[in-house]
Amino acid sequence: MQKDANLSIANPHPKDADVWQKLGLAIAGVGLLVLFLSWGNVPIPAAMGLTIALVGIIGGTTLYAYRLYMRQPAGIKNNGVWFKSLINRGALGWIAGIILTGFYVLLYWYPEYIGYKPNGANEGFVALFDPLSQFFKGKPASQWFLYGTLYTVSILALGIKFLFKYRHNSYQLKRTVSVIIAQLFLAYLVPEILEGLNYNGQTIDGHGIYYDADIKNVWPLDYDFFYGYHLDAMQQEAYQPVGVLYLIIGIAMFLLVTPILTYYVGKRWYCSWVCGCGGLAETAGDPFRHLSSKKLSAWKLERWLIHGVMVFVFVMTAATVYGYFWNTGEVFGLNIYNTFQKPYGFLIGATFSGVIGVGFYPMLGNRVWCRFGCPMAGYMGIIQRFKSRFRITTNGGQCISCGNCSTYCEQGIDVRAYAQKGQNIVRASCVGCGICSAVCPRGVLKLENGPEEKRHDLPPIIIGNKSVELQD
Questions:
Q1: Model pTM?
Q2: Is the bond into 241 cis (omega within 30 degrees of 0)?
Q3: pLDDT (tens digit, 9 = 90+) per residue, 241-269?
Q4: Membrane-spanning residues where (predicted)?
Q5: Domain 389-470, CATH number (from 3.40.640.10, 3.10.180.10, 1.20.120.430, 3.30.70.20)
């Protein structure tokens, strides 16, 4: 029998890209090239250029991923992850991190360098997105429209890649489709269409009801939800009845929906099935998940940081609401904007969640923000840890200590330590992504929702010096 040079018994994983993979890379490369050329002010017709860029990136990535994973047997292949420069903090990883970080710095603080002109015609990179913005809203693109479009394209294209890679696992397929739909519709299309329907040129302090608004974001993640301009905008007659409905839904999501759903299914309903930050982490960030630190010191830092941010946003919001209803810009003699809102927006809203949270994927893993900073994750984590039905059950007798579960836990949980003892995993930081279960070769781990009773206790089987015995 003739052997395929790239696929044999000794080497069941295709080594070299075939012609279709190369074609897919070429198509995606053309799409990226158009983006870079537009950034350099190369005169490209905006409508045609944007179409080539978006279709090229999505289509090329899909073709490449299809040929890459469909040539392999079903199952998760993480071969050689510690030997690839891009995903093991090598030279390519540092270059990617610097580029991502630099892009976020320009996006947040120097948008004029990517072509955004608030008082004139856009240029370069931002101008490329003007036709799409005009289609949705009847006005030129902003840097945030550009970012939202690229963000959505990234989750869509790399989400399709993720679906091919994890095609044998129904849980991964369902939650990936969920985050793609949530980002495409709830975070992108619906807000842009609503703004186009309601936008009439009126703004409050330069902002409207849908400014920087993702309708699936919930306070405290959407930290400016209770800012004065936002509350005013939601009460504007021009925005009714959507404005009041948006206000009611936002409050209900925090007070009722979030705790109830977290009680029944854990924080995974949001962090792994809905959230845009989690969606990008699970798709674009999937190759970097093994870079999360599993050290005890990282766990200690995680608890201090995420709960510190959560306290910060609670205090800031309390001061903001007080200032709004009592018509004062101060609380206890402190200027609310300069003392609370501005520092939080700069340090947490921009630097931590954006620049570090995404820019540092190649250095610190794909869930830096979710693990160390997200106040929404911190809020749900407390509920999940002390009052929830969610847990990951383990069958210690089947564990072979391969370490796959710990290696690929993006939240830095040492899953193997629990599995070896046969203990249920009940951690505030767990986002229920299910990758630990998916990569386990023995079926040791299982995501479950069950009665609260005994979910923290040891299971009925104990493995120790007396071999295996039943627990009383």
A1: 0.90
A2: yes
A3: 777 888 898 899 999 999 999 999 999 99
A4: 23-40, 46-69, 90-110, 144-164, 176-194, 244-265, 304-324, 344-364
A5: 3.30.70.20
